[in-house]
Amino acid sequence: MKNKEKTYYGVGRRKSAIARVILTPGKGTLNTGKWKLTKEDEQFVREPLLLAEKNNEFDINAKIIGGGVSSRLVALRLGIARALILLDAELKTVLRKSGLLTRDDREKERKKPGLRRARRAPQWAKR
Q1: What is the pLDDT of residues 74-98, one digit of tens each?
Q2: Residues 20, 96: Cα–Cα separation, whole Å
Q3: Which residue, 59, 44, 40, is CA-closest to 100?
Q4: Domain that includes residue 55, residue range
Q5: How many domains in the chain?
Q6: For the whole model, what pTM was predicted?
C-alpha cells in the first residue's frame, strides 16, 4: 500500500474453493490471477457491486484456491459481498435480500468403508 488507500477484505468459500478478495478504490478492474473469466462469469461475480451501485469504483484483486469453475465464481462473489459490508454496513440488508451473503454450506460427503461411494452399496444378489 504505497498511497495509504483504504482497502476492504472479504473471504468467500464454496465447497473446496476459497477466494480471498481485496477491494481498493480504482477504475473497476478485476484481477483473479491465473483464472480467466468470461463476460458472463464476470457479470455474475460483479453482481454485489451492481446492487451497491459501485460497479466501477473499486479494483478487485482475488486469490482463488481449490474448487471447480462454478465454486470459484460463487466464492468470489461472496468474498466481494463481504468486503462491501465492511465498506458500508447499510448495504447488508440489500445484499442479504438478494441472497448474496448466504454461504452455500453443501460439501461433498465422505466415502464410507464397505461402500462404493458415500452411500452407494455394492449390488446385492440373493444367489
Answers
A1: 999 999 999 999 998 999 999 999 9
A2: 20
A3: 44
A4: 8-97
A5: 1
A6: 0.88
